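BUG-439 | component: ligand-complex export | severity: low

The export step for glutamic acid jobs runs without errors, but we want the raw record kept on the ticket for reference. Input record follows.
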Amino acid sequence: MTISVRFAPSPTGYLHVGNVRTALVNFLFTRKAGGRFLLRIDDTDTGRSRPEYVHALEEDMRWLGLIWDDYKKQSDRFDAYEMARQKLMAAGRLYPCYETPEELEMRRKMQAGRGLPPIYDRAALQLSQIQKEKYAKEGRKPHYRFLLEDKPIVWYDLIRGEVRFEGAHVSDPVLVREDGVPLYTLASVVDDTEMGITHIIRGEDHVSNTAVQMQIFTALGAVAPQFGHLALLKSSEGELSKRVGGNDIRSLRDAGIEPMAINNLLAKLGTSDPVEAFPDMQSLIEAFDIKKFGRATANYDVHELERLNGKLLHKLPFTAVKERLPFADEHFWLSVRANIKTLAEVKTWSDIVHGETGKYGNAEHTEYLAKALSLLPSGNWDETSWGIWTQSVSADTGRKGKELFLPLRLALTGLEHGPEMKFLLPLIGREKTLQRLKK
Ligand code: GLU
């Protein structure tokens, strides 16, 4: 049996950290098993789905390296859903209901008042033929509910172990809207069956969908796939939006986060494995095991993502970033990579090193800088020059540590922190060093 999984986003917004985690876990699971990965666009809700979101989510998936083997759109498959609807009707498992949303809401309030759970009371099953005809004449269109069997629904979840629901404690789900449009709950089962999906891995928020879908699979004469429900991610929203503009993948990308930083973090959140900065998917695939995921809510922290981004960059060879840094060479990259958190900072350092107009010089230390200038080593500079220079400055002035180094760093770069000065000094070069010390 070939393992087959799918990622099934609804194109009603941009991909975010939460649904990318679902996509990634599916991807790693199937790649580890040598299986297939299907991207399915759940766009039966034409009112809320937007083509630009479809486009954006495909682009984001590619950017992350989550490449799919097959692609389907639910909006292309209405015929298949219509056949399933007819089959369920013929089997007596779909029944027409005429309640308006307001009537249903009132009934739920009454149930709540009496301390009852908000389960649909199946009033529509009691409607007489005459009543239904009367509704039809009034122009009321029915929606259709699936008749659940009043028996226990049990499955062995890849993450949660045995899960049990009482059919009687779940509402009959609406599968077809008044306008005849099939809902996700039905469409998904039809697709998962026809596409040979063997494992459905999705968020815990779908557990009750799974309960009803188990019965729909059976009612359609199919065998339900295996299910795994991931515990959800928790994050401190406020902080997220302040730091990097949001937790959708586009904002992270715009903030300079690398795709592999996202993958490395999301592959491990909620597992017993440490988060590491692997350069590509291969190591994540090899280490993947769905059993490593726990049942507790996992914490997503954007600071962790930023740190991981730095760690990842610190290890990357020039070849991996060359195309994105047309202004830099390998020597420059190796000089600054240990001190950056995002690739954009390489440009900042290039501007600082080669620039003309920064806040260079240091008026508070004119005398000290003049002294230092007179002690600059002669000849061509290399990575030993900074050490030689500052030793003689120290011998001459008696300065040590911060007092010795900081005014020089400030004068030469305009900043108190940055890559090691032994790398920067030869990159800045003699001419600019002289100018900046004199300023
Ligand atoms: N379109 C559904 C969602 O985004 C898919 C859920 C599923 O994986 O079945 O929540």
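Assignee comment: Attached the raw record above. The first strand starts at residue 4 and ends at 7.
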